[in-house]
Design goal:
242 residues, alpha/beta, Rossmann fold, N-terminal domain of TfIIb, 2 domains, 7-stranded mixed β-sheet, 4-stranded antiparallel β-sheet, 7 helices, 26% helix, globular, binds S-adenosylmethionine
Length: 242
């Protein structure tokens, strides 16, 4: 976990505006309004809880959110107001059929190998109650294909210098990135990541193969359809009965 943890939190938080997070929370609240199944709703890879804390505090998921996170630093620095479990997406620490729902933001489910993506989706399917919803966000494959390379350097508000470069390979759907953060005291945090961006048809097949049926696909937080200019790929999928 060299990429997630302190490097990820310090370098990502300055770019996550309160407005974006509030819109993501409102989107998730709409998804889970009228939830009739009993049990908790898991925030998979909850990080420091920017969704889990407010969702657990009020609205349709009040008192029902549990965070799942592997990184100890993120858990130690999390926002107050929600319970969290330290565990691995690839071997979820929930009983079979116990979750009323789950969500995962920021391509969290796809920062692994293809084999592991299957394992993770099967694990989620195992833990959900029949009819329960999984909502997740990623970025459309087409968007990466159009902008396959990125490199930038920026000074963050605390004076840290962030350097990042990434390259997307359309043949494999893999985006390989490298991030380096030089803190004001000279300490350097660095790490690499790989994220798989699936074309929608492949993603739908993957979900089907793991017991989940796609209920909706949105291209943004207002529930707009996915189109060639969409910046988000948000999927709502349901665990099939039987
Ligand atoms: C892209 S971040 C998203 C964090 C949070 N959901 C958000 O939107 O701010 C992915 C999160 O998943 C966590 N993570 C990575 N691998 C994991 C694993 N195998 N099991 C559980 N959590 C993991 C990371 O530590 C990180 O907090």
């Amino acid at each position: 976990m060299s990429f997630f943890g302190e490097l990820y939190l310090r370098s990502t938080q300055p770019f996550l505006s309160a407005d974006i997070t509030a819109r993501e929370i409102a989107y998730l609240q709409r998804c889970f309004t009228g939830l009739s199944l009993p049990g908790p709703v898991a925030d998979l890879g909850c990080g420091h809880g920017r969704h889990a804390a407010p969702l657990n505090g009020s609205g349709p998921l009040k008192g029902r959110v549990v965070g799942l996170e592997l990184d100890a630093y993120s858990l130690a620095h999390r926002l107050p107001g929600f319970p969290a479990i330290r565990g691995d997406l690839r071997a979820l620490p929930f009983q079979s059929g116990s979750l009323a729902g789950a969500y995962a933001w920021y391509s969290t489910l796809f920062a692994f190998s293809e084999t592991e993506h299957r394992v993770i989706l099967r694990e989620i399917a195992r833990c959900l109650r029949p009819g329960a919803l999984l909502v997740f966000q990623s970025v459309p494959y087409e968007r990466l294909s159009e902008h396959p390379g990125a490199a930038f350097q920026r000074t963050l508000p605390d004076g840290s210098v962030l350097q990042e470069e990434s390259r997307f390979d359309p043949d494999t759907g893999m985006d390989h990135g490298r991030r380096r953060l030089t803190l004001p005291d000279g300490r350097v945090l660095s790490g690499v990541y790989t994220i798989r961006y699936y074309p929608l048809a492949e993603l739908t097949q993957l979900l089907e193969a793991t017991g989940l049926t796609t209920r909706w696909v949105h291209g943004g937080l207002d529930g707009e359809p996915l189109c060639s200019t969409s910046t988000d790929l948000i999927v709502g999928a349901e665990l099939r009965h039987g």
